[in-house]
Design goal:
Structural class: alpha+beta
Strand content: 35-45%
Shape: globular
CATH class of the largest domain: Mainly Beta
Cofactor: a divalent metal cation
Family: Belongs to the NAD kinase family.
Helix content: 10-25%
Number of strands: 18
Number of domains: 2
Largest sheet: 7 strands, antiparallel
CATH architecture of the largest domain: Sandwich
Order of helices and strands: EEHEHEHEEHEEEEEEHEEEEEEH
Subcellular location: Cytoplasm
InterPro entries: ATP-NAD_kinase_N, ATP-NAD_kinase_PpnK-typ_C, NAD/diacylglycerol_kinase_sf, NADK
Bound molecules: nicotinamide-adenine-dinucleotide, adenosine-5'-triphosphate
Number of helices: 6
CATH superfamily of the largest domain: Probable inorganic polyphosphate/atp-NAD kinase, domain 2
Keywords: ATP-binding, Cytoplasm, Kinase, NAD, NADP, Nucleotide-binding, Transferase
Length: 296
């Protein structure tokens, strides 16, 4: 895994922070004020980002996008951060905050570490997902995901059929509620709920995890992230149940029978801020509430 200790360039020591704080709840507004004050005291230049800025604004001048929220807020900013090569951090105002950097109580330590350059940068793999029409060869825009691509049944209580191919060779024909292609970052999210394995960040693999397959031997498969995975909705007994695909649970798109999804490792990596001393094992123990004798 790439984990680098970063030292800010002393010639350019002013840290330019884009603050994404979408919540209007009183507690979130109070935390936002505290964060702004603490950053200003340390000489950081802070601009406020609106959710729309993540799609339209040029963010390349920022050193860091700082989210106040939970995993949902981190996921909303991940693609923009990766596209612009900007570091992503979060102060947890959500429930779990698995992807965030720290809790509200640690704001002073967070800002200290940011300004002293003692933080760790973890490079996280993103997925690049392109839908294309096999007949017309028309391709939709390529989208990025940090956690997973989900191909799911839509507006129906029926199961769906779909084929998954690896570099053009059939992996399996699934009869299920859907299939997930998850990154190591996404292995602790939806894929985990669907019975997929926990994958250490930095592992160069994807997981293909079926959701409730009607076959007890259909399990998650781990693949090298150098492959291209193709997912293709199929007709079943002459009937096509409608399907959707979703990236990080945020955007959903319908997909037709003539379309396929091509899923690859994105050329862009997400640079994720980690507090000094943080490690994945303690995150698993704390956030996934592992129990055990004498666990620290
Ligand atoms: N049955 C499920 O487990 C299920 C169903 C739909 C979506 N999801 C997950 O929700 C994600 C979107 O998160 P949200 O907060 O916007 O939606 P949300 O409000 O539906 O929350 C989903 C839960 O997953 C957690 N989560 C998100 N990313 C995580 C990660 N990388 N590691 C560990 N936990 C994580 C969140 O903290 C939250 O508790 C999707 O990417 C998908 O992985 C899970
Ligand atoms: N666009 C928004 N407008 C208003 N409030 C928002 C917005 N986005 C998030 N919030 C609020 O901010 C808080 C964090 O939301 P977020 O979706 O990031 O995390 P969560 O789902 O609550 O937590 P987690 O995903 O970590 O379990 C929540 O209270 C949510 O209601």
């Amino acid at each position: 895994m790439t984990r680098e200790i970063t030292i800010l360039d002393p010639m350019n020591a002013t840290c330019r922070v884009g603050l994404l704080a979408p919540s209007r709840q009183a507690q979130a507004l109070g935390t936002k004020a505290t964060v702004l004050q603490t950053l200003a005291r340390k000489g950081c230049e802070t601009s406020i980002l609106e959710p729309d800025d993540l799609r339209h604004a040029n963010l390349g001048h920022l050193d860091i996008i700082l989210c106040l929220g939970g995993d949902g807020t981190m996921l909303s900013a991940a693609a923009a951060a990766a596209r612009h090569g900007v570091l992503l951090a979060g102060i947890n105002l959500g429930r779990l905050g698995f992807l965030t950097s720290c809790a509200v109580a640690n704001i002073p330590a967070f800002v200290e570490s940011l300004c002293e350059g003692t933080y760790i940068v973890e490079e996280r793999t993103m997925l690049a997902v392109t839908a294309y029409n096999r007949k017309t060869e028309e391709r939709r825009d390529t989208l990025l995901a940090l956690n997973e691509l989900a191909l799911l049944r839509a507006q129906t209580g029926k199961m769906v059929d779909l084929d998954a191919e690896v570099d053009g060779t059939l992996l399996n024909r699934y009869h299920a509620d859907g299939v997930l292609v998850a990154t190591p970052s996404g292995s602790t999210a939806y894929s985990l709920s669907a019975g997929g394995p926990l994958i250490w960040p930095g592992s160069e693999v994807f997981s293909v995890t079926p959701i409730c397959p009607h076959s007890l031997t259909n399990r998650a498969v781990i693949l090298p992230d150098s492959v291209t995975i193709t997912l293709r909705p199929r007709e079943r007994r002459g009937r096509a149940d409608s399907m959707i695909f979703s990236l990080d649970g945020r955007t959903t798109h319908s997909i037709g029978l003539e379309e396929s999804l091509e899923i690859r490792k994105a050329p862009q990596k997400l640079r994720l801020f980690q507090m000094p001393g943080s490690n994945f094992a303690s995150l698993l123990r704390a956030k996934l509430r592992w129990q055990g004798y004498e666990l620290p």
